[in-house]
Specification:
The structure is a homodimer of 352-residue chains.
Chain A (H helix, E strand, L loop, with lengths): L23 H8 L3 H8 L7 H14 L5 H8 L4 E6 L5 H14 L5 E6 L4 H13 L5 E4 L5 H10 L3 E4 L9 E4 L2 H14 L5 E5 L6 H16 L6 E4 L7 H14 L5 E4 L2 H13 L9 E3 L5 H5 L6 E4 L1 H18 L7 E3 L2 E4 L5
Parallel strand pairs in A: 1-2, 1-3, 3-4, 4-5, 5-11, 6-7, 6-8, 8-9
Antiparallel strand pairs in A: 10-12
Helix pairs in contact in A: 1-2, 1-3, 5-13, 6-7, 8-9, 10-11
Chain A binds a DNA duplex (30 and 30 nucleotides) through α2 and α4.
DNA sequence: AGTCATATTGTTATCGATATCAGTTTCCAA
DNA sequence: TTGGAAACTGATATCGATAACAATATGACT
């Protein structure tokens, strides 16, 4: 390890305590114009002569002026951002959705502020409250389960709301998503068509992850409807369950129901864990046991065997949700259609 | 009852005289106190009698009042948040760092605003600019490479800055990180001690990912110093290179230098891709070829064979960086020590 | 009683920008 | 020449909260 002393001698720290930071008035003085003209020069639509604008931009540069958005939005009553809350920072599905949102917002002049709920409606409530204090112009949520208080705040806020990734029974405002239970049921049917009969399901322990619960419900329903019930369910670990929990859960599954011939997992990550664990135990996948996931993560397409899964249009969810939000913010009137269903596709591969 | 209200001429708005959102003044009126008292009641430290506070909270609830932070921070000159910029939203290393930051900020009364640079200093510059317009009380950056303009803005901002994940030659302010080149060199030496002699390296094509470049430099230097040079380098794909690029890169490596006996990858994800590709081609890992990664992602501990890698203390980086920031924000004077080195550990497993 | 500390609440003056409307200049058509 | 639209710029009044100081009440202590 390098024990070399840092050469902190170069320059001074970032603390420039001497001068108070310049305001727009300083810039205006420097450029010999009024603050209003400075304000206009700094907006792209401001009608200011080229000459004046140049002088102002020089002043801005010279003084190192940085606009104060707090003051600006207080005055203009527009904050220029929308909020999006997702369960997890480190999940490629949700990050795809975030990308979709960002892309859709690209030329709208709106920024995205992301918040992480950690799969908890309580944290979501707190986040909503603190987001609302910053006055977003719209808000995108993941899922349709919220605390009553959260729901109330959103309804009172008067801003457009889009719930995503689920189809809530009683939507707050707009919805962009798919039926988790129906998608999972489709996967069950596809696997039944391949000849599997003894179905197992692996997911997290609690109801925290509502999408997980919905998937489990869809699993159970479909297995029942096919006359193959009851489905075998192992709940293990606090959502989001990851590779390790998938591995541990499949062990429980095999202990309890050794003859299970296919295991569906709440996500690809847990499916991968289950797959690795089975292989570690010398089981053939498929053959001794089949495994399927959910979400079509990159890993599923590259491991051996490749994992059968469901692709849900994560990016599209984000893009559509943000588009819907923009429409509501700008157009004002909702175009009637409050619910947008997104597509999905069962992807059959070697693991099941 | 309302005759004592200030002649504010409320409800003069063109359209909705009734539905305009309540302000603190409305709450004050409703509770029969001044706005100042309402303001105090809504802060935890506000000295207000229990009786009054209760009445005010009732009014808040009744009116559905939500504090406007823009107005608050304009007045108080405190925004109550810090910014952190990380390269990628979907990378468990950086999300661990983000968790560390969040945890350290827990009881500070400061919120975290996360931004994503997508490994681009240009995007970073834009993000810094827009963050600065919201007046964060401090800022945490990933890496030590920034555009000159970005650097200038940060230095002029007057707020504390912490650069992380690297040891910049010329730090802006504070630094919390490790030497990527030295860590990679350590990995090379550990593998040389295991008997490997023909070293290959897989990373992204461009200099966008400075940490990747530093790792490559450390690799080349160490191989040279061991008298095993020159190291074999394959650059493939735009950073962050992922599973698929790792797989493709190892193919190039094997075509160009078929006798390579160990391949080091810029990250565990690419290492996993390389591993899968080698297995697909019927090669034994290790045996025919050894593979190592960087970052100790969960996947490396669960695949077969488990991947040799380096664990860098991602969470600790975040925690220490935020701690340092708090110190600078509150304590004011920097405690002299501007550089914090974080620990790391080579983790030898079966893949190499 | 008188003085003073403490607790509670109110008044006033901003914080730094922008909306709005008014004033000025430019330039072209009649 | 002149009216008048178009382009540009400025003065003023907020936006909604909080800091700082002032005022009042209460009770304790000398």
């Amino acid at each position: 390890m390098a024990d070399k002393a840092p050469d902190k001698a170069r320059g001074k720290g970032a603390h420039d305590a001497s001068a108070t930071k310049p305001t727009m008035a300083d810039v205006a003085d420097y450029a010999g114009v009024s603050t209003m003209t400075v304000s206009r020069a700094l907006k792209k639509d401001g009608r200011v002569s080229e000459d004046t604008r140049k002088r102002i931009l020089e002043a801005v540069d010279k003084l190192g002026y940085v606009l104060d958005q707090a003051a600006g939005s207080l005055s203009s009553r527009r904050t220029g951002f929308v909020a999006a809350l997702v369960p997890s920072i480190n999940n490629s599905n949700f990050s795809d959705t975030a990308r979709g949102i960002t892309d859709a917002l690209e030329n709208s002049g709106l920024q995205l502020l992301l918040g992480y709920t950690d799969y908890s409606t309580e944290k979501e409530e707190k986040l909503i409250q603190s987001m609302l204090q910053r006055r977003p112009e719209g808000i995108i949520l993941t899922g349709g389960s919220h605390t009553p208080q959260a729901r109330r705040m959103l309804e009172k806020s008067g801003i457009p709301v889009v719930e995503t990734w689920e189809i809530p029974e009683d939507p707050i405002d707009h919805v962009v998503g798919f039926s988790n239970s129906e998608v999972m049921a489709d996967l069950v049917r596809a696997l039944a068509a391949r000849g599997y009969r003894k179905f197992g399901y692996i997911g997290g322990t609690t109801a925290r992850d509502t999408r997980g619960s919905l998937r489990r419900a869809g699993f159970l329903k479909a297995v029942e409807e096919l006359g193959l019930g009851p489905g075998r369910v192992i709940s293990f670990g606090v959502p989001p369950i990851s590779i390790e929990q998938g591995a541990q859960a499949v062990v429980s599954m095999l202990e309890r129901w050794p003859d299970t011939d296919v295991v569906l997992c709440v996500s690809d990550l847990s499916a991968f864990g289950a797959l690795m664990e089975c292989q570690r135990r010398g089981m053939k996948v498929p053959g001794d046991i089949a495994i399927a996931g959910f979400g079509d993560y990159e890993i599923s397409a590259f491991c051996h065997p490749r994992i059968t899964t469901v692709n849900v249009d994560c990016y599209g969810i984000g893009k559509l949700a943000a588009g819907r939000l923009l429409q509501a913010i700008n157009g004002g009137g909702s175009a009637g259609d409050e619910l947008t269903l997104t597509s999905y596709k069962v992807i059959l591969r070697e693991s099941a």
